[in-house]
Specification:
The chain contains 13 helices and 26 strands. By secondary structure, it is α+β, with helices and mostly antiparallel strands. The strands form seven sheets. The chain has a seven-stranded mixed β-sheet. The chain has a six-stranded mixed β-sheet with strand order 16-23-15-22-20-21, with helices on both faces. It has a four-stranded antiparallel β-sheet with strand order 6-7-9-8, covered by helices on one side. α7 packs antiparallel against α9 (350-359) and α12 (466-475) runs antiparallel to α13 (482-499).
């Protein structure tokens, strides 16, 4: 699905060209004709959202839907420099002690029903999301905010408990919900709060027109969007059962964009009606096999390390990803400024894997399956969504290569919602998962997937290492120079690689195919969704 997550959304694209000097003398600037207004954009994907509630979901499909109807925050990232620049706030100041952040909102913010969007909406949302009773999965990450005030309609004043390197980005945590709609509704119950599944007002580029779960969703242009009404009239997402069906629809012109598997990449590049846009995300999109450390077999680090040695990760990149990925060895990707390659790599080494399993006390049983204390080494591997060909192939290769070590693996593909529920809820009846993360630009926020307090919502495998948590805390404190922070996060990567709570697989190259009838798309390290309001349908050629 097109990436539209917080802090990298909707940057308007100004298109200006300078005309070369002609023989009759110099000419002034000449603007490119204004792109046309109107038309529908249609996307096909296999993963539907869970809900439109930004504070009860963690999946990318839901955040993508939410980014369509709710403006993302006070600031955004410049798609070229990656610097923080104004978004819903027109300006901000930071106190000398780096404890107080004051934001001034734009004066043209309003909800799609005409009601003003004010600082009261931000404060209302912040207070609700930080209420422990409301189960915001990321709440503990923002405990450093000690007050969030709205002294007048256009001013937000936020104070933090101590100087903190990524604090400016960190205080921009609120994707505001409409107080005048939500204040008398239940925060969590979709039965009594229809806004959770069908928001009636919007602040983002589009409004929700219709959502038929697991079939389609239709968004229509929001005339009140503060960046200007989108050029597209509607944006439709069709949910299909398989990626191959989505790709066929793209090739046939039934949709404008669709999921493309690595094996279909070259066919998409060669198709006369498709443009394939490519980029490496600055924050990184990476895949892994995660271990459930609640399970006795997997609590032995030698078993986890052995399984990492037993898996041919380069083969997965070559055969499954068709080369559209690069190896990772720990929790940060090569495009991150804190990337540290000087950690254990666990290159494919079956002999080393067998040696570690023997050290851990496992011996072959009569059927060839390894046994320790009478317990065979049999593991269950989940992946989701079940329609993901890439994750299915990763699981299948892992099953075969682990079996060569004497480890029996049962594979189960699951519908997306069921997969999330299984990995985050008791009885945690699984051993391994094939999954992925979309990382953050500032390395500090990755603490959420490695800290005990985020079990099980984000730290599904229940990994606990207090040294890692202490290092994350150190990395967030001054001095905030890059050299000091690189050392801290480099050490975190080393420890995580040695502890092997994951089999770290690869960073994916980002790419998407779009019908050539669509204009206004510019790939950047933030992706392509940042300027969605500027996308347009090209006029038909005569």
């Amino acid at each position: 699905m097109i990436e539209r997550r917080n802090l990298n959304l909707m940057l308007a694209l100004a298109i200006i060209v300078l005309v070369a000097t002609a023989a009759c003398g110099p000419k002034g600037p000449e603007a490119v004709p204004t792109p046309p207004q109107g038309g529908n954009f249609t996307e096909a994907t296999t993963a539907d959202a869970v809900s439109f509630h930004p504070y009860l979901t963690t999946d990318t499909a839901s955040s993508s839907y939410q980014g369509m109807v709710y403006a993302s925050g006070l600031m955004r990232r410049d798609p070229e420099t990656l610097d923080l620049i104004p978004d819903m706030a027109q300006e901000w100041t930071v106190s000398d002690d780096y404890l107080t952040f004051t934001f001034t909102l734009r004066d043209d913010l309003k909800w799609s029903d005409g009601e003003p969007l004010t600082s009261a909406d931000f404060k209302f949302t912040f207070d609700r999301m930080m209420d422990p009773a409301n189960d915001f999965p990321y709440r503990e990450a923002f405990d450093f905010i000690v007050s969030y005030e709205a002294p007048d309609e256009r001013t937000i004043v936020i104070t933090v408990d101590e100087p903190f390197c990524p604090a400016l980005e960190g205080v921009d945590v609120v994707q505001p919900l409409p107080k005048h709609i939500w204040e008398n509704l239940d925060w969590k119950d979709p039965e009594t709060n229809p806004e959770i599944m069908h928001p009636s007002v919007a602040s983002g580029p589009f409004k929700l027109k219709e959502w038929v779960k697991d079939d389609h969703v239709i968004f229509e242009a929001n005339d009140s969007y503060f960046r200007g009404r989108p050029r597209l009239d509607t944006y439709t997402i069709r949910i299909v059962p398989e990626q191959e069906i989505a790709f066929t629809m793209l090739k046939n012109g039934e949709v404008d964009t669709a999921d493309i598997t690595p094996e279909n990449y070259q066919e998409a590049v060669d198709h006369p009606d498709i443009t394939v846009y490519e980029w490496w995300l600055a924050r990184g999109s990476w895949s892994y096999i995660g271990f459930n450390l609640r399970r006795p077999h997997l609590q032995d680090v030698r078993v986890r390390q052995a399984l990492s040695y037993a898996l041919n990760k380069q083969q997965i990149i070559d055969k499954v990803m068709h080369g559209l990925a690069q190896r990772i060895y720990s929790a940060y990707v090569p495009t991150s400024w804190v990337y540290n390659p000087d950690v254990p790599h666990y290159d494919y080494d079956p002999d080393k894997a067998r040696e570690l399993l023997k050290e851990a006390g496992y011996e072959p049983g009569p059927d060839g399956i390894l046994v320790k204390d009478g317990e065979p080494l049999k593991l269950q591997l989940l992946f989701g969504p079940h329609t993901s060909k890439v994750r299915e192939q990763i699981a299948t290769i892992a099953q075969a290569q682990f079996k060569d070590m004497g480890v029996e693996v049962e594979i189960q593909g699951m519908e997306w919602g069921a997969f999330l529920e299984a990995t985050k809820s008791e009885p945690f009846d699984w051993d391994m998962i094939v999954a992925g993360w979309l990382a953050t630009l500032d390395p500090h926020w990755m603490v959420q997937i490695w800290s005990e307090e985020f079990i099980p919502d984000l730290n599904a495998g229940a990994y606990v290492n207090k040294e890692v948590e202490d290092l994350f805390a150190q990395g967030g404190k001054p001095p905030c120079d890059k050299e000091s922070r690189q050392k801290v996060y480099g050490e975190i990567q080393r420890i995580l690689a040695e502890d092997a709570p994951y089999v770290f697989l690869f960073q994916s190259k980002s790419y998407t195919g779009v019908n050539k009838r669509i204009g206004g798309i510019v790939p950047t390290p933030l992706g392509i969704g940042y300027n969605i309001e500027e996308w347009y349908v090209k006029p038909e050629e005569p």
